[in-house]
Amino acid sequence: MKYLSLLFLIISHFNGFSQEKTALQQLSCFSIEVPQLQTTRKIWVYLPKEYHSTSKKYPVIYMHDGQNLFDSKTSFAGEWNIDETLDSIQAQVIVIGIENGGEKRIEELTPFKNEKYGGGNADAYLDFIVNTLKPKIDATYRTKSNAHNTCIMGSSLGGLVSFYAAIKYPNIFGKVGCFSPSFWFGRNDMNNLLAKTKDFNTKIYFLCGDNEGDADVIPDLTAVEHWVNTKRCECKKMNKKVIIKGGQHNEKLWRENFKKAYLWLF
């Protein structure tokens, strides 16, 4: 009986250690039903280093293409090093990475149809983020859930849908990271939407390279930035445009400039 008691204590100790280690993880994953898209989706959750040792609440960044953010093994063409970057500056933020839909990525990340590529199902995708995912995140983690503390960020089509989200849900997303946005996708529809939109009070960071392989990326971005500036006084300094010399349309550009975007937005 003595030895059995000792064995029980040892097992209990290691079980407790294992549970604590799991609880203290900064990076974790879960799967969630997506009724709006009739599928399930993998979600990555990054927590700041101090999360488990405080009772503080934190702002949240929702990011698209979650498989490219934290792990080179799951990425398409290199990761963003989000966790390492945020750890290095002791960032006070929670990041939610949303797995893209693979072959349905174009469809889900575009608000308008394109004659050549199709698409146009971003409303359903954003409905999932706003009405299914965000409520779960706010209920599970200590978040600052208001618009001022909620950011949406992405690159390429992810940059396009992030900007669109700010127009569609201005009371949800108060900050946007808009990297190499594919404004060419449904350009006329986007221009029509901008013409109908009266207000835009979201803080936004525009980024692109001058060697992205698309001659229109800078003019498109500049045109959208000009529209944003017509909606508010530039003196408020609520938007910033950065064009990287030699920057290409890839993870390297977005990875190397994520920290500056985060620091400016927050």
In words, what does this structure look like?
By secondary structure, the protein is α/β, with parallel strands linked by helices. Helices cover 39% and strands 18% of the residues. The protein contains 8 helices and 8 strands; from the N terminus they run αβββαβααβαβαβαβα. It has an 8-stranded mixed β-sheet with strand order 1-2-4-3-5-6-7-8, with helices on both faces. The radius of gyration is 20 Å and the shape is globular. The termini are far apart. The N terminus is likely disordered.
Helix content: 25-40%
| Overall geometry | globular
Which structural class best describes the helix and strand composition?
Answer: alpha/beta
Through-space gap between termini? 59 Å
Strand order across the biggest sheet?
1-2-4-3-5-6-7-8
Instruction: Report the total helices.
Output: 8
Q: Give the strand content.
A: 15-25%
What is the H/E string?
HEEEHEHHEHEHEHEH
Number of strands: 8
- Average predicted confidence as pLDDT: 89
Largest sheet: 8 strands, mixed
Instruction: Report the C-alpha radius of gyration, rounded.
Output: 20 Å
Low-confidence sequence ranges = 1-23
